[in-house]
Amino acid sequence: MTKETEKYAQLLLDIQAVNLRPDQPFTWTSGLRSPIYCDNRLVISHPQCREEIETGLVNLIKTHYPDVEVIAGTATAGIPHAAIIAHLLDLPMIYVRSQAKGHGKQNAIEGQLLAGQKVVMIEDLISTGGSVIEAADKVAQAGGQVLGCLAIFNYCLDKSRQAFDQAGYDLVSLTNYEALLQLVKQNQIFSPDQEKILAQWHHDPELWSQKY
Ligand SMILES: O=P(O)(O)OC[C@H]1O[C@H](OP(=O)(O)OP(=O)(O)O)[C@H](O)[C@@H]1O
Ligand SMILES: O=C(O)c1cc(=O)[nH]c(=O)[nH]1
Predict the structure, then answer these.
(1) Which of 5, 30, 106, 169 could disulfide-link to 175, CB 3.0 to 4.6 Å?
(2) Residues 131-149: pLDDT tens digits?
(3) ipTM above 0.95, yes or no
(4) CATH topology of domain 3-211
(5) What number of other Cβ atoms are within 10 A of residue 171's Cβ?
(6) Which residues are noted in the entry as orotate-binding (predicted)?
(7) For residue 110, which of 148, 83, 145, 81 has the smallest C-alpha distance?
(8) Which of 28, 41, 98, 124, when mutated, tests ligand 2's pocket best, judged by the most ligand atoms within 8 Å of its CB?
């Protein structure tokens, strides 16, 4: 855990984005069942937290992807962050739908993407990585050059590591599960039993999921 990852994990705790419900697990978009759910959609409702997060994301882009030409939001939760970042960097923005529209222009990508443009994907959170990888694939198929993916929070599951390795996309995040867990322990936010459940879950989320 670094000072930076700790700072952003604390911000998510401060706005109560982190929910723990071991007795009534959450169902994730991947279908996995989980005792934890981090609702980063709340960030947009808290101006001070929002400003710190968007500034952090902009700084990561300047460090890791200085050549970026287009900021791409992943629908839906990545879109507001992509919009703010694109505005702060004075860059074009696009967003990628999880499914192409069934009417109108039937677009999967909204906004203008020119062939060869260098794109950074913005996602609010990485669980399995499936959503942002699928969106990045759509951008690549449309002729964009994906420099990498940027997220606020990453659970750092083996499954997502393997998925990013296989897809060949770079991934950078502001904060992650390790930093969050460290703060939770330090501040005794959850009970020892709850911490144990989290440890079991993170060790093998698929096995944990099958049991519930
Ligand atoms: O890494 P993954 O396994 O793909 O999971 C993470 C994705 O799940 C959530 O989106 P959700 O599907 O709930 O839709 P939303 O963005 O429209 O809220 C989240 O915002 C990420 O996009
Ligand atoms: O995988 C998901 O669907 C997911 C997990 C999580 O913690 N937060 C979220 O918004 N989505």
Answers:
(1) 5
(2) 999 999 999 999 999 999 9
(3) yes
(4) Rossmann fold (3.40.50)
(5) 24
(6) 127
(7) 83
(8) 28
Which residue's CA is minimally distant from atom 1 of ligand 2?
Answer: 28
**28-47 confidence digits (pLDDT tens):** 999 999 999 999 999 999 99
HEC profile for 188-209?
CCCCHHHHHHHHHHHHCHHHHH
Q: Which of 47, 27, 46 is nearest to 36 (CA)?
A: 27
Indicate the annotated binding residues for orotate. Answer: 127
Where would I find the beta strands (DSSP E) of 89-192?
Answer: 93-96, 109-110, 118-126, 145-154, 171-176
Mean pLDDT of 117-124: 98
Query: Is the beta carbon of 117 within 6 A of some atom in ligand 2?
Result: no
How many A from CA of 26 to the centre of ligand 2? 9
Q: Which of 15, 32, 38, 208 to mutate to test the pocket of ligand 2 (most atoms within 8 A of CB)?
A: 38
Ordered by start, the domain boundaries in the chain are: 3-211
Cα of 90 vs centre of ligand 1, distance in Å, is 26
